[in-house]
Write a structure and sequence with these properties.
- The structure is a homodimer.
- The termini of chain A are far apart.
- In chain A, the strands form two sheets. In chain A, strands 4, 5, 6, 7, 8, 9, 10 and 11 form an eight-stranded mixed β-sheet that branches. A three-stranded antiparallel β-sheet of chain A has the order 1-2-3, with no helix packed on it.
- Chain A contains four helices and eleven strands.
- By secondary structure, chain A is an alpha+beta fold.
- The first copy, chain A, folds into two domains: about 1-35, Single Sheet (Ubiquitin Ligase Nedd4, Chain: W); about 40-180, Nucleoside Triphosphate Pyrophosphohydrolase (Alpha-Beta Complex), CATH 3.90.79.10.
- Helices cover about 30% and strands about 30% of the residues of chain A.
- In chain A, a hairpin with a 4-residue loop joins strand 8 and strand 9 (about 115-120).
Amino acid sequence: MKFCSHCATEVEFRIPAGDNRQRYVCPSCDTIFYQNPRIVAGTLPFYYHDGEPQILLCKRAIEPRKGFWTLPAGFMENGETTEQAAERETREEALADVTVQSLFTMVSVPHIDQVHMFFLARMEKHQFGAGEETAEAKLFREQDIPWKEIAFPTVARTLKRFFEYKNDSAALARCHSSAILPSEALRKLEAEERERQKREAQKSTNGQTS
Amino acid sequence: MKFCSHCATEVEFRIPAGDNRQRYVCPSCDTIFYQNPRIVAGTLPFYYHDGEPQILLCKRAIEPRKGFWTLPAGFMENGETTEQAAERETREEALADVTVQSLFTMVSVPHIDQVHMFFLARMEKHQFGAGEETAEAKLFREQDIPWKEIAFPTVARTLKRFFEYKNDSAALARCHSSAILPSEALRKLEAEERERQKREAQKSTNGQTS
């Protein structure tokens, strides 16, 4: 942020009177520009088949994390409720009409100023498809979840919690709130990089011996 | 929003390519300015006395709703978790150090683009006071809650839910998600206005007969 969006004056970055944090402030019209975390709302859509829940995942057709699997979710918009946002994203990304049940996970991701929330959403009909931002939508049994190809840590955590509690209706009805800390995100990136290097090394070894 | 905050060009309000909502867009540097709901995070601090929970409320020293009672809460800041935000607001407004437990209510308020969330927070010590934005902090038994002087509908709803479920530990452990719709907010304002007029009429009647 360089200029005031009301009067185009160059803004200052300082602690306003009566505040204790640095903000962008316009020295001309005195507007203070607060910046706050954004909500990413989504669902964990599940469909019962042979008494076992299957989870609807979407393969991302766009960056970030193109080609990886995610639960349908996206930025909550002004003028809607958290439930409406979660249902809209499920309709847009997975072409599935769901009615959300309870809030299941809420994960703060402070280093990117986001709060991710996932609602349980039982699918009554076997009806879904790939929306514009989705390459493929597919139901997965627990044993088929592509754990190494999950797009975001908040999604992996939500899926893990679901299978951990799948036979505990009281735990499923609770909201599990937690945070992904920068150190954790970093460790995950490092582990992925090591994994990638190992695969590369493997490939070149295979190349040499074939 | 009139000007681009990156390059000071006058912005346009239109649907960007690949989107389905109107946004502020800079025709010069192509920045799209998304606007999203903000989170208000707070606690429901309760202190057990003689086996009964008492609730810590703060009388607001500032507008909006100056002079009305509220639970400690405020806008979540970038770089913190929802729990950290709720604990910080409780420290700042009620000078109380609490460790939050579970998320108890989440209330979407779409007509003002906010999501309010309140965490249960048991107070281990009888220690609190009035922070800078608070005129008075006080513990209330259920029968003493000043229902007609509660600052915000999301706070009233959270308090009601708490007393409704105070003997039901499973219900207390769940997150109760709901919304305050514009029509509801309007009805509340109208009811308050009728109440005010009734009091005014009463006052003038008393004035005439005394």
